[in-house]
């Protein structure tokens, strides 16, 4: 009989930005399948998800992978939060996704900033003043430009050991800012993997005495903010071969600016200013290879005969990927397509 450690991970009820919570359950001879992980409970009154007089909330496992820090006997179990009666909790963004056939594929580009808790500034920034202006840090190599690489490399290895579909990492435009990318066929799975990857990043940063800052504008001034660009497609976009279809889908987003911004992350007005590769938060635009647009049409899509994907550049780094995916799916389905489709 083998004792296995299941790390149950869930999102709390804090607003406007939810935090991750976790606790360990020890079980015998776990199979590694999330379906075999039992429903568990927690004290919702300590996470702003229930009153003290009726504090039980339920954890429903929805995704499981090996825990690389507990080799062989550990598993990471991503959970949805349910009310005591088994209905989805109001904080449960995953339950809002309407993609049961996994027709939608998502690739999230998760940016973040490594902070030094001693200075409460991005890693590499001096305690007072600023480093050299932006320019040399993006995809950089070398001391004084790329900082925090040990943490980033360890996180990448842990994600791969866990079986997460990480497609790459790179240093970003601001010093101390990095990015990893995850792709999944299915909106729920993409959200699951982003949250588990965030969990591994935060837990790994503990060992280095560093803090991962997901705020979308961690440094005011002439510094890029942090986003979580959402690359998405469905069967229509992957196969239509029609510029008119792509334009119709993009145009469906324009009248729904508020619905998207409401779930695209707190304080996004500080990031979506029209500067630093963004469109203004109250405007909508789309364009081929345009990183200043709300939605970018990748050159890959055009060169492959209008068969590919779109990139919504507005989601902030602190957004809930479940809610982002849910909003995008809902909007794509409102598109008024050409009669020939």
Automatic annotation (TrEMBL):
Subunit relationships:
Homooctamer and homotetramer.
- Its biological function? Catalyzes the ATP-dependent biosynthesis of glutamine from glutamate and ammonia.
- Entry's family note: Belongs to the glutamine synthetase family.
Q: Name one GO biological process term.
A: glutamine biosynthetic process
Catalyses:
L-glutamate + NH4(+) + ATP = L-glutamine + ADP + phosphate + H(+)
Compartments, record wording: Cytoplasm
Q: What is its main location?
A: cytoplasm
| Keywords assigned by UniProt, alphabetized | ATP-binding, Cytoplasm, Ligase, Nucleotide-binding
- List, alphabetically, the InterPro entries matched: Gln_synt_N, Gln_synt_N_sf, Gln_synth/guanido_kin_cat_dom, Gln_synth_cat_dom, Gln_synth_gly_rich_site, Gln_synth_N_conserv_site, Glutamine_Synthetase
Determine if Hydrolase is one of this entry's keywords: no
Q: What is its EC number?
A: 6.3.1.2
Outline the extent of the GS catalytic domain.
88-341
Highest taxon above the source species: Bacteria
Query: Which GO cellular component terms are attached?
Result: cytoplasm
Question: This protein is called what?
Answer: Glutamine synthetase
Look up and give the organism this protein is from.
Allorhodopirellula solitaria
Instruction: Name the Pfam families on file.
Output: Gln-synt_C, Gln-synt_N
Q: One GO MF term, please?
A: ATP binding
């Amino acid at each position: 009989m083998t004792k296995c450690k299941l790390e149950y991970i869930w999102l709390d009820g804090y607003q406007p930005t939810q935090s991750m919570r976790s606790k360990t359950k020890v079980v015998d001879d776990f199979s590694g399948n999330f379906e075999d992980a039992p429903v568990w409970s927690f004290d919702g009154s300590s996470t702003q998800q229930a009153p003290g007089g009726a504090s039980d909330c339920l954890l429903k496992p929805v995704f499981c992978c090996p825990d690389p820090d507990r080799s062989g006997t550990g598993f990471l179990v991503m959970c949805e939060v349910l009310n005591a009666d088994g209905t989805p909790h109001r904080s449960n963004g995953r339950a809002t996704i309407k993609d049961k056939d996994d027709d939608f594929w998502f690739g999230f580009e998760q940016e973040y900033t490594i902070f030094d808790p001693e200075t409460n500034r991005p890693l590499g920034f001096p305690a007072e003043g600023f480093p050299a202006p932006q320019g040399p840090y993006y995809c950089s190599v070398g001391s004084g430009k790329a900082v925090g690489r040990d943490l980033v490399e360890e996180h990448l290895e842990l994600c791969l050991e866990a079986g997460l579909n990480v497609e790459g990492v790179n240093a970003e435009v601001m010093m101390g800012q990095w990015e990893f990318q995850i792709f999944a066929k299915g909106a729920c799975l993409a959200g699951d993997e982003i949250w588990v990857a965030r969990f591994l990043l935060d837990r790994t940063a503990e060992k280095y005495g560093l803090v991962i800052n997901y705020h979308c504008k961690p440094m005011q001034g002439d510094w890029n903010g942090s986003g979580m660009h959402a690359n998405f497609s469905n069967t229509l976009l992957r196969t239509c071969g029609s510029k008119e279809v792509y334009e119709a889908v993009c145009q469906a987003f324009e009248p729904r600016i508020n619905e998207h911004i409401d779930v695209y992350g707190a304080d996004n007005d500080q990031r979506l200013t029209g500067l630093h590769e963004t469109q203004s938060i109250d405007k909508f635009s789309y364009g081929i290879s345009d990183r200043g647009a709300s939605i970018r049409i990748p050159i890959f899509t055009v060169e492959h005969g209008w068969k590919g994907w779109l990139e919504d550049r507005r989601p902030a780094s602190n957004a809930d990927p479940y809610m982002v995916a849910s909003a995008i799916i809902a909007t794509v389905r409102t598109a008024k397509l050409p009669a020939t489709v």
